[in-house]
Amino acid sequence: MSTPTQANFDALGRLDLLGLDQTLDSDDRLIRDTIRQFATEQLRPHIAEWFEAGTLPARELALEFGKLGVLGMHLEGYDCAGAKPSQYALACTEIEAVDSGLRSLVSVQGSLAMYAIHAYGSEEQKQQWLPRMARGEAIGCFGLTEPDAGSDPGSMRTYARRDGSGEHADWILHGSKMWITNGSISDVAVVWARTDDGVRGFLVEQGTPGFTSSDVHHKISLRASITSELSFDEVRLPASAQLPEARGLKAPLGCLTEARFGIVSGVVGAARDALASALDYADTRIQFGKPISSFQLTQRKLAELAVTVQNMQLVARRLAELKDAHEIQPHQISYGKFSNVRSALEVCREARSILGGSGITTEYSPLRHAVNLETVYTYEGTHEVHTLVLGQQLTGISAYR
Q1: In this structure, which of 45, 49, 341, 346 has its CB flanked by the most CB atoms within 10 Å?
Q2: Catalytic annotation on 64?
């Protein structure tokens, strides 16, 4: 039986029933293959250990991802690669094929923290942070969710007030944020807070007096990822810490839309990897004198899962086309997250069943992917919230309140 941690390139080829690989141009294929090779050689051999230990060498990995050019790769300028969104989607697929926690490290850095600075920051803020973040020399996090404000960020309690009058007056920040990826290791936190003029964004540097963080432990899901609580006790910030172009909830929600795009393709990688693992196992697991892949019930499972994964890829490809053309709409990204995360969960659970008892160990990926996807199902817009986004698009009626 082949080692389950080895990349099963034969299985990947067999799973491409529609020949989607043939639609990639030479640049796309080079990016995909480069990241796949890095993931195979540098990430896959260690992921079971990181998951079991509930930790991740995030700073070291950030530097490696920086050298690879995937941090903020879809952003222009400031030492960012300026790749097409569709190429960023390919990167997310290959990284999440190893583990959702690794893709979260990359997407929180590039599509939340870096994107917020790139879209809403001053030129000084961009010059200070983006080149270092693109190289992985500085790590960012994104502080929006609170213990009592998850799906309803408009009810956040974190607030910032001016200490004095005039646009150059300091800000005083007070409150807390929860479930923050990269929180305790971040050099800069993008923090969203209520003010007298609505929601505003601030850059809070690590080491600022009154800013503390603590990690969330005993996680069952997304264990190869750092998850933290951020606390702000009357933190004094200069006026220059405010993101000048971020006004209202539209700004952080725009960042979430950007990050969800990566999720749509990322979870394809998790589902594809789980299915490839199950297909390889079924070919080599002998029962009743022959491989279990020869049994009708197993072939039915494999066929249904393969079609599901290909449908997920089609959704991701269509959204990437729209994103490349600057035509994508938020409800379309909600469609992708709604459809692909749900489908990925179903694929990983059923793939685990093909592995039998072996599937409950960390030697094989399907169940690890499945428990990770339970978090992806919830974060950056719960499945229920995306249901309501689609419902509003279909009916013209908002059902949130």
Answers
A1: 341
A2: no
